Amino acid sequence: MYPVSQHAQQASSRADRILDAAATLLLRMGYRKVTIEDIAKQADIGKGTVYLHWRSKEQLFQALLRRESIALVEEMRAGLRKDPAESRPHRIARSKFLTTHQRPLTMALVLGNAELLGKLTQSPVSSQELLSTNRSFEVMIRHGLLRADVPNIVYAMRAASVGFYLLGALDPASAGPDLEARADALAHTIRHAFEPAGEPRKEATAAAAAELCAIFDDLIACYRKWIYAAEPG
Question: Which end of the chain is more exposed for a tag (fewer CB within 10 A), N or C?
Answer without folding.
Answer: N
